[in-house]
Design goal:
There is one protein chain. The strands form two sheets. This protein has an eight-stranded parallel β-barrel, surrounded by five helices. Strands 4-5 form a two-stranded antiparallel ribbon. It has helices at 8-35, 39-42, 55-58, 63-70, 82-85, 95-106, 136-153, 184-189, 192-204, 220-236, 256-268, 313-332, 375-382; strands at residues 48-53, 73-76, 110-118, 128-129, 132-133, 160-165, 209-214, 242-245, 248-250, 272-281, 337-342. Helix content is 40%, strand content 15%. It is globular. By secondary structure, it is of the alpha/beta class. Strand 10 (272-281), helix 12 and strand 11 form a beta-alpha-beta unit. The model is unreliable at 1-35 (pLDDT under 50).
């Protein structure tokens, strides 16, 4: 547990007369200490503040100091995904995941495993038996071995798992006919692959918090489908504890009201809510660019990359206000929200510079390319002062 920051009033109270006499001398020292506190300290009584990290960013000068100062929860961007952690059958790559966990434990952080089962970034061998499609029994056995091996290794060290990621089909009109995304998992095992994943993770670490994670979780069709899934899981004893609402938003959409309604809906079902992948895209968008399906790609065009020399004052002001509006909502739901995690720590490392159009200059995070706090940081801190 992180120690509480000592207020100036407590400093005087504890120091007595000497504290009063020395307050002027210690003013600058105290101010510097306050300046070095981070987002984790500002929101410590409300929810965890997290970030997503990668090996490449981890080696950048000043990066570890930024993460330690600002955050108390960490998620690995890619290196717990199946293609990274078990690229070949039976060959596990635990090097970076071990380093990730070691760093988090040393700093007293909540460590999040992302992700056990996903249709993307999963190697082809999982669904093949030689040159033929693997049977349902073989795929199920491979799932059992993968989840058991990975979760067991980090039992008691990773507090939260994104067990299943993006398994619901998406359209602007809601889920498809059966609601599930067409994937090799669905094709081979049917919808039961979802609840089987949760059972396996729970068996490997009964104390871990298990989440279903997805984007566009405020979309009414997807929201209602997931709520019904949760109700069904609860009836059948599937161990689901919360939902991860990927927070890939834009300056103008989705509405705060839609996000509000979704948080309420999931919390009503007894779910812990995690805002898992928060960033605010400021670049021009159209319907073809909306969402977070990593298979989406479009060609670079200059008109879709207008801020290569910096953000205009008007856009920066809108960006700051968007962060304020989001955190006002999170504070409103602080009894239901366990964690707010930004998808990266500073603009230079954000995937939004490359998705869905490569080589753009985006500004989606709370810290700029020099790892300095944006105006939004002070603005959201003021909400809780």
């Amino acid at each position: 547990m992180k120690p509480n920051r000592i207020s100036r009033r407590d400093f005087v109270k504890r120091s007595g007369t000497a504290g009063l006499l020395m307050m002027g001398m210690k003013q600058l020292t105290f101010a510097k200490a306050v300046e070095q506190t981070g987002l984790k300290d500002a929101f410590k009584d409300r929810f965890l503040m997290g970030t997503a990290i990668s090996p490449r960013s981890f080696e950048m000068e000043g990066y570890q100091a930024l993460v330690k100062r600002e955050f108390n929860a960490i998620t690995a961007v890619n290196d717990f995904k199946w293609e990274r952690i078990q690229p070949e059958e039976g060959k596990f790559e635990f090097g970076w995941p071990d380093q990730f966990v070691e760093f988090g434990q040393a700093k007293g952080m909540c460590c999040v495993g992302h992700v056990l089962v996903w249709h993307s970034q999963c190697p082809d061998w999982v669904f093949m038996n030689g040159d033929k499609p693997a049977s349902k029994a073989l795929v199920a056995k491979r799932m059992e071995n993968h989840i058991g091996s990975v979760v067991e290794r980090y039992k008691g060290k990773l507090q939260v798992w994104d067990v299943v990621n993006e398994a619901v089909d998406f359209s602007n009109n809601g889920p498809s006919a059966n609601g599930w995304r067409k994937s090799k998992w669905l094709e081979t095992m049917g919808p039961e692959f979802v609840d089987r994943s949760f059972h396996l993770a729970h068996e490997a670490d009964p104390k871990a918090e298990l989440l279903y994670n997805d984007y566009e979780m405020q979309n009414p069709g997807r929201r209602d489908f997931v709520v019904n899934m949760i109700k069904d899981f609860k009836k059948r004893g599937v161990p689901i504890h919360g939902v991860g609402m990927q927070g890939h938003v834009h300056l103008g959409r989705p509405s705060i009201e839609a996000i509000d309604a979704a948080i309420t809906a999931y919390a009503t079902e007894g779910m812990k809510v995690h805002i898992t992948e928060l960033d605010v895209d400021v670049l021009p968008m159209d319907n073809k660019l909306w969402g977070a399906d990593i298979a989406t790609r479009m060609e670079y065009r200059n008109q879709l990359d207008p801020y290569t020399e910096g953000l205009p004052a008007e856009i920066e002001q809108r960006l700051t206000q968007r962060w304020v509006d989001l955190f006002e909502l999170f504070i409103k739901h602080q009894d239901s929200i366990e964690r707010v995690t930004t998808w990266g720590s500073h603009d230079a490392e954000s995937w939004k510079n490359w998705f869905p159009i490569p080589r753009r200059t985006n500004y989606p995070l709370l810290f700029d390319r020099e790892m300095k706090p944006k105006r939004a940081v002070e603005a959201i801190k003021k909400l809780v002062e």
